Amino acid sequence: MKKITQISCVLQCATVNDLYDLSLKSAQSKEKKVFIYEKSDLSKIIGSEKAEELRKLFLKNEIKIKQITNVPIIPSFSRNVEFVNNCMFFRDLPKETFNIDNEILIFDDIVAVYNIEPKLKLTIIKDKSFAENQKQLFTNLWEQGQTPKLGFEYKPNHSFYNSINFAIQKKHIIVYPDKDALGMASGNTLLVLDYEEKLRRQSEDLKSYFNGPSPHLPLELLNGMDFL
Q: Are strands 88-92 and 12-13 parallel, antiparallel or unpaired?
């Protein structure tokens, strides 16, 4: 029997330019999707000007970035409002569910792990199967995450956000059709003052849906599906 060779991946000392080059590659992702476990602000690592240049490139290339963090409140991090609204997606996970010790960047067939404290260290794994596995893990964790509070105005303009605004009992509600709705109203996510609930009402169309009974308030939190 052939002996199995063990592969050991260790974080190696790196430079700011190494991290910038990695981020530049992610901004040119062929799949146009980037997944990141975020721990620190990129601007504090490579500088605000270089970070904003990268964000312009993400926007130009229409790259979608899903970010999971342990931080329940995300402060403002970019002057590029169009980038934030068009490219960024946010989820918060408690450390008890998944503790983010190192930042992890996943795109195409690349999984990069890095940390900036006490020194900048980085390792890059280029393997399609491993990257796909890590994307699956990220998606499962994403579905358990909550929408964090944001320290800035966020008006997402994502192609799969086909939102409808209305009010029930003077409370503002936004409806995001779920991917299983298939253009109908059989599955929707309602956001109500930081609360949301998946409603399952079989309706022929949105008009029939809205003629149904109003949901009880406050609604419970549940938002884990993509709307692609």
A: unpaired
Going by C-alpha positions, the residue among 26, 38, 11, 20 that lies closest to residue 138 is 38
CA angle 44, 67, 222 (to 5 degrees): 140
Q: What is the pLDDT of residue 154?
A: 81
For all residues of the chain together, what is the average pLDDT? 74
**Domains of the chain, residue spans:** 12-150, 164-210
Q: How many residues does the chain have?
A: 228
Strand positions, DSSP E, the chain: 12-13, 33-38, 64-69, 73-74, 88-92, 103-107, 110-115, 121-126, 149-150, 164-168, 171-177, 188-192, 195-199
For residue 62, the number of C-alpha atoms closer than 13 Å in the C-beta half-sphere is: 5
pLDDT tens, residue by residue, 135-180: 999 999 988 888 888 888 887 754 333 344 555 555 555 554 444 3
Could you tell me which residue, 222 or 123, shows the higher pLDDT? 123
Q: What average pLDDT does range 41-64 have in this prediction?
A: 91
pTM: 0.66
Topology at the third CATH level for domain 12-150: Endonuclease; Chain A (3.30.870)
DSSP, res 217: S
CA distance 104 to 107: 10
DSSP per residue, 143-178 = HH-BPPEESS------TT---EEEEETTEEEEEEE-
If residue 46 lies in a helix (H) or strand (E), which one and from where to where? Answer: helix 42-46
As a dihedral over the C-alpha atoms of residue 148, residue 217, residue 144, residue 101, rounded to 10 degrees, the angle is: 30
